[in-house]
Amino acid sequence: xxKQKSFILLLVFTLVSGQFGCGGNSxxxxxxxxxxxxxxxxxxxxxxxxxxxxxxxxDIELGRRSAEEIVRQAPLLRDAAVVNYVQQLxxxxxxxxxxxxxxxxxxxxxxxxxxxxxxxxxFIFVNAGAIAAAKNEGELAGVIAHEIVHVxxxxxxxQASKAYIAKAGIGIISSVxxxxxxxxxxxxxxxVGGTGANMLFLKFGRTAETQADLEGARIMAExxxxxxxxxxxFQTLQxxxxxxxxxxLSDHPDPGxxxxxxxxxxxxxxxxxxxxxxxxxxxxxxxxxxxxxxxxVQSSKxxxxxxxxxxxxxxxxxxxxxxxxxxxxxxxxxxxxxxxxDNWDALQADEANYIFxxxxxxxxxxxxxxxxxxxxxxxxxxQSSDLEMANNQFIRSQIEANPDFRVARQPQQIDFGGRAGxxxxxxxxxxxxxxxxxxxxxxxxxxxxxxxxxxxxxPEAEIxxxxxxxxxxxxxxxxxx
Length: 481
Hints:
By secondary structure, this protein is α+β, with helices and mostly antiparallel strands. It folds into two domains: about 30-290, no CATH class; about 295-480, 3-Layer(aba) Sandwich (Protein Transport Mog1p, Chain A), CATH 3.40.1000. The protein is about 35% helix and about 20% strand. It has 16 helices and 15 strands. Strands 6-7-10-14-13-12-11 form a seven-stranded antiparallel sheet, with helices on both faces. The chain has a three-stranded mixed sheet with strand order 1-3-2. Strands 4-5-15 form a three-stranded antiparallel sheet. Helix 5 packs across helix 7 and helix 10 packs antiparallel against helix 12. It is elongated, with a radius of gyration of 26 Å.
């Protein structure tokens, strides 16, 4: 049975408890980044947290609520090796953070955008795009250390507190603090904008960014990294900003010349004469996101190959564009026929399922064949005599086999070669190409009562180049009567 993956930029994710927490804790379970039964105070940082109506424990509750909202909107990467690597690196850096002992937890967002963000209480998210963009582990450590400081200095709840006072009036301070009580979370959040208050936790002013840069540099140095790698990452982003400003820079405003400020801080920091710049773990994680090693390939779409042809290895560059000239293909059992670009190969997965793809877009692993661009087609046993139910069960089986992917557009009724059919869009991050991939699954009933399906797939950034080929192939399909 083929396992399919799909792609799109924003998907709704259902949280799986226990999978995303640092050190084995669940994402919202409140575990500590270091040993101990309860959060405690740690050494002071160079900066003191600003005005705040909240207790640190309330930061954790606010962060948990916001993180729940985030995972409903953004897909989390489920590559355990990459996630575990980021969690271990994050825990190493968080151990050097000053202030309250928050239960830091680190998660990877399955997005190619270069970004990272922190929520109150220690919930930190790093985009896969930021990992891929870093030139070495030092640069990635700089990104994570920067976000840790936003948590340690409580920048998110500081902003929420200021926004609350601005709306409720200065007189509220005496009623909130006069009796030694802290602000009620629901009251504050409702006053500053309900669920929209999340934006207060995701964008900071220049003062907060300066503190995150310089205190992050201290954390890096104490963890064995060179803070200049943080500056190098900012420089890389600035160089990329010609055509489109990277999301990290738009969310983290430049407080001035941040690179020069980091360099000025160096003499006061315990920078190692032989700092950590790269590790095998970083290279492995980056390779998995870029599709440069076999283990990443094994986690993508794979099909048990029984056909006689040896598949080509997936190349590091894009496969050739689909030819406008077509050639005919008919399944050996005569159940269907179609036309495909004449520069595509036809591979038989088993007696009823086939792969059509260009050279460089498919390859062999120990588990079968992986495909990044092309078409799957064939028949499977229908789980119901009702086409809608059979389609939904088929879609569900594909999502269960590929947990990184989600339905991006619900099934739509279509005319499939003169028959009733359905089209469903599914999407997710391909661990082979390191980019978002979009698949469209088409189904209809075959003459023998089975479910005939076609799946078109291509990276989201290349869909336009494949649309005509997909349209021509779909239009050419003929099913046995």
